[in-house]
Amino acid sequence: MDPTRAARRYVVTGADSGLGHEVARLLARTGDVVTCGVGSGVDVRADLTRPAGRAALVEQVRDLTGDRLDAVVAVAGAGAPRPETVALNYFGTVEVLDGLRPALAAARAPAAVVVTSSSTLHRGSGALVRACARGDDGRALATARRLTRTWRGSQLYRSSKIALNHWVRTAAPREEWAGQGIVLNAVAPGIVATETVTRTWERDRALLETALPQPLGAPGPVAPVTYLLAHLASAENRSTTGQVVYCDGGTDALVRGTRPQRTYLRYPVRDVVAMWRAARSSVA
Q: What is the pairing mode between strands 183-189 and 8-13?
Protein backbone atom coordinates (compact mmCIF):
# COMPACT_ATOMS: atom_id res chain seq x y z
CA MET A 1 0.00 0.00 0.00
CA ASP A 2 1.19 3.52 -0.79
CA PRO A 3 2.15 5.02 2.61
CA THR A 4 1.02 8.45 1.47
CA ARG A 5 -2.55 7.14 1.11
CA ALA A 6 -2.84 5.01 4.24
CA ALA A 7 -4.70 6.48 7.24
CA ARG A 8 -2.15 7.91 9.62
CA ARG A 9 -2.04 7.76 13.40
CA TYR A 10 -1.02 10.99 15.08
CA VAL A 11 -0.20 12.07 18.61
CA VAL A 12 -0.79 15.73 19.47
CA THR A 13 0.40 17.19 22.77
CA GLY A 14 -1.24 20.32 24.13
CA ALA A 15 -4.44 19.22 22.40
CA ASP A 16 -6.70 20.45 25.20
CA SER A 17 -6.53 24.11 24.13
CA GLY A 18 -5.37 26.68 21.63
CA LEU A 19 -3.21 25.70 18.69
CA GLY A 20 -2.93 22.09 19.82
CA HIS A 21 -6.71 21.71 19.87
CA GLU A 22 -7.01 23.18 16.38
CA VAL A 23 -4.33 21.02 14.79
CA ALA A 24 -5.78 17.90 16.40
CA ARG A 25 -9.17 18.75 14.85
CA LEU A 26 -7.55 19.22 11.45
CA LEU A 27 -5.61 15.96 11.58
CA ALA A 28 -8.71 14.04 12.71
CA ARG A 29 -10.29 14.72 9.30
CA THR A 30 -7.92 12.28 7.62
CA GLY A 31 -6.39 10.17 10.37
CA ASP A 32 -6.61 8.83 13.90
CA VAL A 33 -5.46 11.24 16.60
CA VAL A 34 -4.37 10.47 20.16
CA THR A 35 -4.85 13.74 22.04
CA CYS A 36 -2.70 14.60 25.07
CA GLY A 37 -2.97 17.41 27.59
CA VAL A 38 -3.71 18.33 31.18
CA GLY A 39 -7.36 19.32 30.73
CA SER A 40 -10.49 17.30 30.20
CA GLY A 41 -11.57 15.64 26.99
CA VAL A 42 -8.20 14.25 25.93
CA ASP A 43 -7.10 10.64 25.52
CA VAL A 44 -3.99 10.96 27.68
CA ARG A 45 -3.68 13.31 30.64
CA ALA A 46 -0.11 13.94 31.75
CA ASP A 47 1.91 16.75 33.34
CA LEU A 48 4.93 17.20 31.09
CA THR A 49 6.67 19.56 33.50
CA ARG A 50 7.71 16.44 35.46
CA PRO A 51 9.78 13.43 34.34
CA ALA A 52 7.15 11.04 35.71
CA GLY A 53 4.45 12.73 33.63
CA ARG A 54 6.55 12.48 30.46
CA ALA A 55 7.20 8.80 31.06
CA ALA A 56 3.50 8.22 31.76
CA LEU A 57 2.51 9.90 28.49
CA VAL A 58 4.94 7.78 26.47
CA GLU A 59 3.74 4.57 28.13
CA GLN A 60 0.04 5.37 27.65
CA VAL A 61 0.49 6.43 24.03
CA ARG A 62 2.41 3.29 23.18
CA ASP A 63 -0.31 1.20 24.87
CA LEU A 64 -3.07 3.01 22.97
CA THR A 65 -1.34 2.79 19.60
CA GLY A 66 0.18 -0.65 19.93
CA ASP A 67 3.50 0.94 18.94
CA ARG A 68 2.05 1.89 15.54
CA LEU A 69 2.60 5.59 15.32
CA ASP A 70 3.10 7.69 12.21
CA ALA A 71 3.61 11.22 13.49
CA VAL A 72 3.90 13.36 16.60
CA VAL A 73 2.94 17.04 16.72
CA ALA A 74 4.36 18.49 19.94
CA VAL A 75 2.43 21.66 20.72
CA ALA A 76 2.32 21.64 24.53
CA GLY A 77 3.97 24.73 25.93
CA ALA A 78 3.68 27.59 28.40
CA GLY A 79 4.77 31.21 28.53
CA ALA A 80 4.61 32.14 32.21
CA PRO A 81 7.82 33.51 33.80
CA ARG A 82 8.26 30.40 35.94
CA PRO A 83 10.81 27.55 35.82
CA GLU A 84 8.00 25.16 34.88
CA THR A 85 7.93 26.88 31.49
CA VAL A 86 11.43 25.57 30.73
CA ALA A 87 10.55 22.13 32.10
CA LEU A 88 7.55 21.90 29.77
CA ASN A 89 8.71 23.72 26.65
CA TYR A 90 12.09 22.05 26.31
CA PHE A 91 12.47 18.95 28.45
CA GLY A 92 8.81 17.93 28.17
CA THR A 93 9.00 18.11 24.38
CA VAL A 94 12.39 16.47 23.88
CA GLU A 95 11.84 13.61 26.32
CA VAL A 96 8.42 12.77 24.88
CA LEU A 97 9.78 12.73 21.33
CA ASP A 98 12.75 10.62 22.34
CA GLY A 99 10.41 8.23 24.15
CA LEU A 100 8.13 7.87 21.14
CA ARG A 101 10.96 7.67 18.61
CA PRO A 102 11.08 3.83 18.53
CA ALA A 103 7.37 3.72 17.64
CA LEU A 104 7.94 6.30 14.91
CA ALA A 105 10.90 4.36 13.53
CA ALA A 106 8.61 1.39 12.91
CA ALA A 107 6.34 3.44 10.63
CA ARG A 108 6.70 3.68 6.85
CA ALA A 109 6.68 7.50 6.62
CA PRO A 110 7.34 8.81 10.14
CA ALA A 111 7.42 12.47 11.10
CA ALA A 112 7.72 14.70 14.13
CA VAL A 113 7.16 18.43 14.35
CA VAL A 114 7.42 20.79 17.31
CA VAL A 115 6.04 24.27 17.90
CA THR A 116 8.45 27.03 18.85
CA SER A 117 7.93 30.78 18.36
CA SER A 118 8.95 33.87 16.41
CA SER A 119 10.07 35.28 19.77
CA THR A 120 13.22 33.22 19.17
CA LEU A 121 14.31 36.06 16.87
CA HIS A 122 15.19 37.90 20.09
CA ARG A 123 18.26 37.05 22.14
CA GLY A 124 17.63 34.75 25.10
CA SER A 125 19.68 33.55 28.03
CA GLY A 126 22.80 31.83 26.70
CA ALA A 127 23.31 30.03 30.01
CA LEU A 128 19.80 28.59 29.90
CA VAL A 129 20.07 27.54 26.26
CA ARG A 130 23.40 25.81 26.92
CA ALA A 131 22.04 23.95 29.95
CA CYS A 132 19.12 22.68 27.88
CA ALA A 133 21.46 21.62 25.07
CA ARG A 134 23.46 19.55 27.55
CA GLY A 135 20.28 17.91 28.81
CA ASP A 136 21.07 19.25 32.29
CA ASP A 137 17.60 19.91 33.65
CA GLY A 138 18.93 20.65 37.14
CA ARG A 139 21.16 23.47 35.91
CA ALA A 140 18.52 24.69 33.47
CA LEU A 141 15.88 24.99 36.20
CA ALA A 142 18.38 26.62 38.58
CA THR A 143 19.18 29.17 35.87
CA ALA A 144 15.47 29.72 35.30
CA ARG A 145 14.93 30.36 39.00
CA ARG A 146 17.82 32.86 39.05
CA LEU A 147 16.41 34.70 36.03
CA THR A 148 13.00 34.86 37.71
CA ARG A 149 14.47 36.19 40.97
CA THR A 150 16.33 38.94 39.08
CA TRP A 151 13.27 40.13 37.14
CA ARG A 152 14.36 38.46 33.89
CA GLY A 153 11.65 35.85 33.83
CA SER A 154 10.45 37.08 30.45
CA GLN A 155 13.53 35.38 28.96
CA LEU A 156 12.38 31.89 29.95
CA TYR A 157 9.84 31.38 27.17
CA ARG A 158 12.00 32.48 24.26
CA SER A 159 15.14 30.84 25.69
CA SER A 160 13.40 27.47 26.01
CA LYS A 161 12.10 27.81 22.45
CA ILE A 162 15.55 28.84 21.16
CA ALA A 163 16.94 25.69 22.79
CA LEU A 164 14.21 23.66 21.11
CA ASN A 165 15.09 25.16 17.71
CA HIS A 166 18.73 24.20 18.30
CA TRP A 167 17.73 20.67 19.29
CA VAL A 168 15.72 20.17 16.11
CA ARG A 169 18.62 21.38 13.98
CA THR A 170 21.16 19.12 15.69
CA ALA A 171 18.98 16.03 16.21
CA ALA A 172 17.29 15.84 12.80
CA PRO A 173 20.33 14.66 10.76
CA ARG A 174 21.44 12.09 13.33
CA GLU A 175 21.26 8.35 12.85
CA GLU A 176 18.44 7.93 15.37
CA TRP A 177 16.23 10.36 13.42
CA ALA A 178 17.21 10.76 9.76
CA GLY A 179 18.92 7.38 9.83
CA GLN A 180 15.56 5.82 10.74
CA GLY A 181 13.72 7.80 8.08
CA ILE A 182 12.05 10.15 10.60
CA VAL A 183 11.67 13.76 9.48
CA LEU A 184 11.93 16.25 12.35
CA ASN A 185 11.05 19.94 12.05
CA ALA A 186 9.92 23.00 13.99
CA VAL A 187 7.27 25.58 13.19
CA ALA A 188 7.76 29.02 14.73
CA PRO A 189 4.43 30.88 14.70
CA GLY A 190 4.14 34.59 15.18
CA ILE A 191 1.32 36.24 17.07
CA VAL A 192 -1.77 34.26 16.11
CA ALA A 193 -5.39 34.60 17.19
CA THR A 194 -5.58 31.80 19.74
CA GLU A 195 -8.01 32.10 22.62
CA THR A 196 -5.28 33.37 24.95
CA VAL A 197 -3.98 36.02 22.55
CA THR A 198 -7.47 37.23 21.66
CA ARG A 199 -8.42 37.54 25.32
CA THR A 200 -5.40 39.70 26.21
CA TRP A 201 -4.80 41.44 22.87
CA GLU A 202 -5.93 44.95 23.76
CA ARG A 203 -3.87 44.86 26.94
CA ASP A 204 -0.70 43.56 25.28
CA ARG A 205 -1.06 45.00 21.78
CA ALA A 206 1.42 47.87 22.03
CA LEU A 207 4.16 45.62 23.45
CA LEU A 208 3.62 42.75 21.00
CA GLU A 209 3.39 44.91 17.89
CA THR A 210 6.64 46.63 18.86
CA ALA A 211 8.53 43.48 19.84
CA LEU A 212 7.28 41.27 17.00
CA PRO A 213 6.03 43.41 14.11
CA GLN A 214 4.07 41.42 11.53
CA PRO A 215 3.82 43.02 8.08
CA LEU A 216 0.73 40.93 7.30
CA GLY A 217 -0.94 42.16 10.49
CA ALA A 218 -1.40 40.83 13.99
CA PRO A 219 -2.80 38.72 15.36
CA GLY A 220 -2.56 36.44 12.37
CA PRO A 221 -4.96 33.57 11.60
CA VAL A 222 -4.49 30.20 13.25
CA ALA A 223 -5.30 28.10 10.17
CA PRO A 224 -2.03 28.67 8.25
CA VAL A 225 -0.05 27.42 11.24
CA THR A 226 -2.18 24.31 11.65
CA TYR A 227 -1.98 23.48 7.94
CA LEU A 228 1.79 23.88 7.98
CA LEU A 229 2.06 21.57 10.99
CA ALA A 230 -0.18 19.05 9.26
CA HIS A 231 1.94 19.11 6.11
CA LEU A 232 5.21 18.62 7.96
CA ALA A 233 3.62 15.68 9.83
CA SER A 234 2.19 14.15 6.67
CA ALA A 235 3.36 11.13 4.71
CA GLU A 236 4.00 13.42 1.73
CA ASN A 237 6.81 15.17 3.57
CA ARG A 238 9.74 12.87 3.00
CA SER A 239 12.42 15.51 2.39
CA THR A 240 12.02 18.56 4.61
CA THR A 241 13.83 17.90 7.88
CA GLY A 242 15.86 19.83 10.41
CA GLN A 243 14.10 23.07 9.49
CA VAL A 244 12.73 25.88 11.64
CA VAL A 245 9.91 27.33 9.54
CA TYR A 246 8.70 30.77 10.57
CA CYS A 247 4.95 31.18 10.03
CA ASP A 248 4.91 34.69 11.42
CA GLY A 249 3.27 37.15 9.06
CA GLY A 250 6.67 38.32 7.81
CA THR A 251 8.43 39.08 11.11
CA ASP A 252 11.51 37.00 10.33
CA ALA A 253 11.96 38.55 6.87
CA LEU A 254 11.42 42.06 8.25
CA VAL A 255 13.83 41.95 11.18
CA ARG A 256 16.56 39.70 9.77
CA GLY A 257 16.40 40.49 6.09
CA THR A 258 19.26 38.71 4.30
CA ARG A 259 21.21 37.97 7.47
CA PRO A 260 20.18 34.38 8.36
CA GLN A 261 22.79 32.64 6.20
CA ARG A 262 26.06 33.94 7.58
CA THR A 263 27.98 30.66 7.66
CA TYR A 264 28.48 28.76 4.44
CA LEU A 265 29.64 25.22 3.79
CA ARG A 266 33.31 24.59 4.52
CA TYR A 267 35.21 21.48 3.41
CA PRO A 268 38.57 19.94 4.28
CA VAL A 269 41.24 20.50 1.62
CA ARG A 270 41.14 16.85 0.53
CA ASP A 271 37.40 17.12 -0.19
CA VAL A 272 37.91 20.32 -2.18
CA VAL A 273 40.56 18.58 -4.30
CA ALA A 274 38.29 15.56 -4.84
CA MET A 275 35.38 17.79 -5.92
CA TRP A 276 37.65 19.76 -8.27
CA ARG A 277 38.87 16.56 -9.89
CA ALA A 278 35.31 15.24 -10.20
CA ALA A 279 34.16 18.51 -11.78
CA ARG A 280 37.00 18.41 -14.30
CA SER A 281 36.28 14.83 -15.26
CA SER A 282 32.59 15.59 -15.74
CA VAL A 283 33.33 18.22 -18.42
CA ALA A 284 36.15 16.32 -20.11
A: unpaired
